[in-house]
Write a structure and sequence with these properties.
With about 110 residues, the protein is an alpha+beta fold. The protein has helices spanning about 1-5, 55-65, 85-100; strands at about 25, 30, 45, 70. It contains three helices and four strands. The strands form two sheets. A two-stranded parallel ribbon has the order 1-4. A two-stranded antiparallel sheet has the order 2-3. The protein is globular, with a radius of gyration of 14 Å.
Length: about 110
């Protein structure tokens, strides 16, 4: 999701992709900085940026994608956190998007 935002791809473009060709969706939000400044360090927890995650997940849901979803964040602020705390924060950040997509009852799936 970060990569789509960083390259300027609109969420609706996902509807052109066969859901069978999508193996995993990695949720990460995108910092609101100029595109040329976007690096992996600009990957934010879901809901913290401008990626349009809800729209992306809705397009994927409507296309029939039912595969796995993970959170992929390289934020430097996570470096001093315990792994368990990072996992809890990632799940808490992803949960609203999973609920909105109708799949909160199946963690890890859209």
């Amino acid at each position: 999701t970060f990569d789509l935002c960083a390259t300027g791809v609109e969420p609706t473009a996902l509807s052109a992709v066969d859901p069978q060709d999508i193996f995993i969706v990695r949720l990460s939000d995108c910092a609101d900085v100029p595109q040329v400044l976007l690096t992996d360090a600009a990957r934010l927890m879901p809901g913290e940026g401008k990626a349009g995650l809800a729209a992306m997940l809705e397009v994927l849901r409507c296309s029939g994608f039912r595969g796995p979803v993970s959170v992929k964040v390289f934020s430097p602020r996570l470096l001093n956190m315990e792994p368990r705390d990072i996992a809890k924060a990632a799940m808490a950040a992803a949960e609203p998007f999973l609920k909105a997509s109708g799949k909160a009852d199946k963690p890890g799936q859209v």
